Amino acid sequence: MLIYLARRVGMAVLVLLIVLVFLASLVHILPGDPVSLMLGPRADPELIALARQEMDLDSSVPAQVWHFLANAVGGDLGQDFLTKRPVSELIGAALPNTLVLALTSLLLAVVAAIPLAVVSAARQGSWLDRILGTLSVGIVSIPSYVIGMVLLLLATVWLGWLPAIGTGSFADPLDYLAHLVLPALSLALVWAGYLARLLRSALLEVLGQDYIRAARAYGIAEWRIYYQLAMRNAIPSVVALIGVALGDLMGSAIFIEVIFTRNGLGTLLYNAATQRDHPTMRGGVVVIAVLFVLANLLADLVNRAINPRLREVSSR
Amino acid sequence: MPSVPAALPGPLLRRRGFLAVIAAAGGGLATAALAGCASGNRGPQAKTLALRLDVDMGNLDPAFATGRSDYEIMECVFEGLKSYRPGTSDTVDTLVEEFEVSPDGLEIKFSLRRGIPFHAGYGEATAEDVKYSFERIAGITQPNINSSYQGDWSALEEVRVTGPYSGVIRLKHLFAPLYHTTLPLERGYVISRRAVLDRGTGFGTAPVGTGPYELVAWEPRNQAVLRRFADYGGARYGYAEKVLWDEIRFRPVLDSSSAAIALTAGELDFGPFEPLDNKRFAGEPGYQTLEHPTFDYSMLGMNVNHANMADIRVRQAIRSAVDAEAILAAAFDGAYRRATAIIPPNMPVGYWGDAPVPKRDVDGARRLLADAGARDLQITLTSSTDQENPQDVCQIVQANLADAGLRCTIDIQDAGSFWTLGGEAQAQRQLFYCGFAGLPDPYWSMVWFTSEQVSQWNFQSYSDTVFDSLQQQALRSADNGARQADYIAMQQRWDAAANTVWLAWPQVLFAGRDSIVPSIRVDGRMLAWNFRERA
Amino acid sequence: MSVDLAAPPTPRRGGPASLQLVRRIVATPSGAFGFTVAVLLVVVAVFAPVLAPHDYTALDIEHRLEGPSSTYWLGTDNLGRDLLSRLMMGVRIALQIAVPAVVLGVLVGLLLGLAAGYLGGKVDTAIVVILDAIQSFPSVVLALAVLALLGSSSWAIVLVLAVAFVPSFGRVTRTSVQAVQALPYVDAERNLGAGTLRIIGRHVLPNVVPPLIVLMAMNLPSAIGIESGLAFLGLGVQPPTPDWGVILSEGFARIRESPWPVLWTCGVLAVSTLGFTFLGERLRDVLDVRTTEVRS
After folding, report:
1. pLDDT tens-digit series, residues C2-41
2. What residues of C are in contact with residue B326 (Cβ under 8 Å)?
3. Chain C residues close to A292, C-beta within 8 Å
4. Which CATH number fits the domain B18-291+510-533, given the four candidates 3.40.190.10, 3.40.50.720, 3.20.20.210, 3.10.20.740?
5. Which of A76, A141, B442, C55 is most deeply buried (CB count within 10 A of its CB)?
6. CA gap B323, B319 in Å, rounded
7. Which residues of A169-207 are buried (b: 16+ CB within 10 A; e: fewer)?
8. Which of residues 63-102 of C touch B (CB under 8 A)?
9. For chain A, what is the mean pLDDT?
């Protein structure tokens, strides 16, 4: 177990390093100069030189990565180039909203996926099963911002039920929830279908086993069989996906946050990107990488823990 | 096939236990996230107001202030002899108790209120400070600092001090804008002479005035923080209530949509926005939007010195072909009034109500072009990225002109290139789209279009000696009626020269939390010190 | 993942193999839908200027932000341009970026997969680790970072998207190579002196092509979605080019005045992504490719 843990953590660190190296070397390899993009073509050379120094662009790639890591360990992720505020402060203010959004979406997706999967598995092969199947596969491929905009149109512009902008404040939980519904739904819909599909396959596999037949013979109610027995053994296969789901949600959250004008890591990254603010971009990308890697790690460990039958696969 | 007996409590419990742990962890994480987002940048006791600036701050020294961001901060820090009463175009006494203009208008006797302290322990405001403040900008005090606002005080002969709190402002000639723009605006602020001598060029980032707030933090591109001045002399309390806020933060946020997000996040309370971002807040519960006119104007200009624009028929054709209504509707989203001349209706003097409103006449344009033999003319339309929606404006103009048979290429330059002054740059200009800011006196709108400004800011190369002399005449007049006639005459001549297509008189569009009661100056600047809160 | 390495396909009756393939694809409703959408999009992309009812740059301010009418079948945008014509040109732009991105991804992925499979050992491990790292990392975030650094030129977008797709193609190729290498008759061929290239050509490629094709069809909607998303954020293709993302962005800003730009653009995006996904799914069934791979 410890060896496995060490290996997974090692992988995680490697992913982070690759991301950092990639960002740092990009500037060197490909044409295009981030500083002149940021300051404009008429910036005077002194300013450019100062900017390059501030952003550590003149050091070699390994040196840049090392400087960044050394500072990051101490909590210093650099300074936003435009406003000089510490990047960690900006991220600290923005992150909670994004986390809440991602987790809520995931929760909604799982909660929706379970009954969908059960219905599909129970009525395997029926028209309902096939339609649900098609829909699930289909909706996954539609970009989440498309769904987000349609929901915005429906619920806000036409029906006026829900607010369109902002996050609301944590001080007023109901208000916060009202602002959370549409964004979370937009993200959840995509994953609900996909998770339902996966859960269905896992369920079907489990349902074919002896002990289920035994349970039926014992007279245990159908709903118990599905929701308690079969689900227990089917969930692990889905848990493994949670890490991937969170990663995808982080990416899609950028669009959803922009569409719903929510203050979060996504909009922070978006603003930094449009203003070519390199330090904030780098800090944001790294934080997302860390979160994503942690989520995968956690999902993996949880999966192994709750499903001792899981054999280690060297490459998924 | 691995078989796990269903009825065994052991493994199931373990798994169930684990699932419970996961759920708890998830809940804990969510709660931590919720708790993690604390109140942010407000202390529980201090009343803070956070306002957006849409341009970066530059210099708070009245002699060198760079633009509207600086003005809005300065309004809280400095005071002048007179000010604009909030929300009106009337001026009221601020630092003065008595203010008497001589019959010939060349002498102004004033006496200051007593006991008005400067910030940072620089003592009382005296007539010596008034003398220093005005003569310094006028270039009378040596060494001449070459203030950007020297023109505002060009008529100043001297300020004679007659007592510790009294003096006489002596003018060389009548100067109408003195009462509308010089005294009540930034150029007329009274600063501490000792503080300027102490701080030198540092005065611009560590200003000392008599206003209700003092600057405590200056972070370029991030924020300027003002704190309530405990010993405020109360010069404004004759026409305004006691100030409400303990702290005011001005935040430059250059991108309008980032600013919109900051507003929803609670990092901003109020500020100006572009039309589209402003619209998102209209009707949203918890927010308010507000429009306020300005003295600004935007236009399509034609450089008459360029070969392509030299023929007046070509210029008239362009004026007939351009669909200003369409530009207002599509490029400015219907947010601005259509301009018919340079002076807007809210200007106290000079508005030409009978100005002709060009109706789009494509056939007329074609005929004019045919007469001028300009059928195959290829012209260039330039604009700058710092203008309002240049893409859409230029595309519409291009399409409009194409209807009349005129081919036009669009060149949207970066601000540095577009605003390059001088003969060489001027020689390139043909048709251009841009806007200028205005002030509460028409003098400042017209001044850029006189003959001496050709090859400077007079991009149209408009040179008319009658226009120039009317400008001087109206400047030195105290008679509003006469000035009105002069300015209308100038605009009529301008119209006849057909070198400009007037587009819009832009408004400032504000958005903010609806608990704020804003206070806006006549020229559209926020009077932060006078913002209130709804009960 | 297992690839069916059964005996070479027996000739079937009923016409040339490609027509047979098409017949099988359109046999199911989803397959038919997917195939129709794909064909339609390609046709529109190629013939857009001819098919479009209006000039997509022609302004008509008087009729801006109107709904469907007899002149403008889908309505107009904020400058009065015909939405239908702009959306049609948008197909061309979307495919102009998405297709090269996917193709580039396939080529690089193929190379990497072959390298990993053949060279084995440290190279293999290194490649697998890198591919794993890129695989499920949110590609949008990566794209954002790259475009912010380098500016938004078309080829930068293509490059970034391609990078996002390389892992899935690489993995598939690698597994194919490994499976082929394990086959006894391939081993025998090698002992007889057959070069690596020959083995690649005769055995690996025929077996790796079907899953790659399926994967291409599945990744295309991703490419279109991300590319339009980036344009929507202002980081991809720039206005006034009628990229779907640009139309969406302009429409979104004025969503309260007219829902039509947003509605129609969402519609074409949904239909395109659905279409290619269904096509991919059906192709997977038809080409008999089994995979438990999680699509990126």
Report:
1. 445 554 555 555 567 778 888 888 888 888 999 999 999 9
2. 61-62
3. 136-138
4. 3.40.190.10
5. B442
6. 9
7. bbeeeebbeebbbbbbbbbbbbbbbbbbbbbbebbeebb
8. 64, 78-80
9. 79
CATH class of A90-235+248-268: mainly alpha
Q: Note whether B279 contacts C: Cβ–Cβ < 8 A.
A: yes
Residues of chain C found within 8 Å of residue B323, distances taken between Cβ atoms: 61
Class for the domain spanning B297-505: alpha beta
Which residues make Cβ contacts (< 8 Å) with residue B187, sequence separation at least 6?
B62, B137, B149, B152, B153, B181
Quick: pLDDT tens for A68-84: 777 777 777 777 776 67
Residue B24: is its pLDDT beyond 50?
no
pLDDT range class, residue A307, cuts 50, 70, 90: low
Name chain A contacts of B254, Cβ cutoff 8 Å.
82, 275
CB contact under 8 A, B395 and C59: yes
Average pLDDT of span C250-263:
89
Residue B396 — pLDDT band, cuts 50, 70, 90?
very high
Name the residue ranges covered by the structural domains of chain C: 24-292
Does the distance separating the beta carbons of A214 and B6 come in below 8 Å? yes
Cβ <8 Å between C277 and A272? no
| Reduced 3-state DSSP string for B14-67 | HHHHHHHHHHHHHHHHHHHHHHHCCCCCCCCCCCEEEEEECCCCCCCCCCCCCC
Q: pTM score, two decimals?
A: 0.81
Q: Per CATH, the architecture of C24-292 is what? A: Orthogonal Bundle (1.10)
pLDDT class of B114 with cuts at 50, 70, 90: very high
Query: Are C61 and B279 a contacting pair at CB < 8 A?
Result: no
Distance from CA of A157 to the nearest CA of C (A): 6
DSSP type of residue B347: S
C222 Cβ under 8 Å from any chain A Cβ? yes
Considering chain B, what percentage of its residues have pLDDT values greater than 90? 74
Q: Is C123's pLDDT higher than 60?
A: yes
Amino acid symbol at C124: D
Residue B38 carries which side chain, given as an amino acid letter?
A
* CA nearest to B153, candidates B198, B203, B114, B188: B188
Average pLDDT of span B16-20: 45
- Per the CB < 8 A criterion, the answer to whether C135 and C157 are in contact is no
Mark yes or no for CB contact B30/A263 under 8 Å: no
Residue of A nearest to C291 (CA): A316
pLDDT for res B49: 96
